[in-house]
Design a protein that fits this description.
Blueprint (H helix, E strand, L loop, with lengths): L4 H9 L3 H6 L1 H4 L2 H13 L3 E5 L5 H7 L4 E6 L2 H14 L4 E5 L12 E7 L8 H11 E12 L5 H14 L9 H10 L4 E11 L1 H7 L4 H13 L2 H6 L8 E10 L1
Helix pairs in contact: 4-5, 8-11
The structure holds S-adenosylmethionine.
Amino acid sequence: MNTSHDSVVQRQFGPQAQAYVESSVHAAGADLDWIEQYVSQLSPTHALDLGCGGGHVAYRLARHAERVIASDLSADMVGAVLETAADKGLANIEGQVASAADLPFADNTFDCVVCRFSAHHWRDFVGGLTEARRVLKQDGVALFIDVAAPENALADTHLQAIELLRDPSHVRDYRPSEWSSALALAGFEIKSLRRWKLRMDFEPWIARMRTPDAHVAAIRSLQEAAAEELRQYFTIEQDGSFVLDTTGIEAM
Ligand SMILES: C[S@@+](CC[C@H](N)C(=O)[O-])C[C@H]1O[C@@H](n2cnc3c(N)ncnc32)[C@H](O)[C@@H]1O
């Protein structure tokens, strides 16, 4: 069996492609509305949804861009997005199977690159951001949306622990300070940054990743043993549901 990190990602996401198309937590949100509002003013010719998953960014981009590429490491995800785009009558979405760290596009291709809830799975975070900068036109704009780890080490460690137990393809939810450093290394300048809260409903959260029972029990055990300040920080509920911070970064 191939045990590279990329193959772990493909094994985790491939069989769940349809679940990500249908996931309510991915299909809606203030962050998606922000993306759409932003892109409606930009009207890009050529836009990239990087790590497209179930394609929720691509569907929004397609209303305002001439051409949208939905790209993902998982061929199953790209296939599910193309099928859904056809069902929605969105003829301007094309698919591309690719790693974020090795994009098969020429320099300066896109007016707009959007990457939502994908970078925390990448084996090479700075490498992927560097590729995003390379394929973006000089005056193009990138929007990055992801879970934001707390700057506080106690809460950060709790978050990464439950994320990894849930999903072995999890690498790291980065802190806003880590996003800033990595984006600078990749050649981006941050223009603006916003924050949202996102509630994770425990049952669908573990079902989407087919988390084994032993890992579910370990997550619940960590939550039950957590300090009061963590319970409050993540608003941990009786059934394990909790609230995350997410961030939206506009960069050029
Ligand atoms: C949580 S899903 C993305 C959700 C989607 N962007 C949305 O807005 O609903 C994460 C996606 O990132 C993809 N991914 C993980 N690592 C990747 C990499 N190195 N390059 C490209 N895609 C990657 C996974 O295959 C998966 O489809």
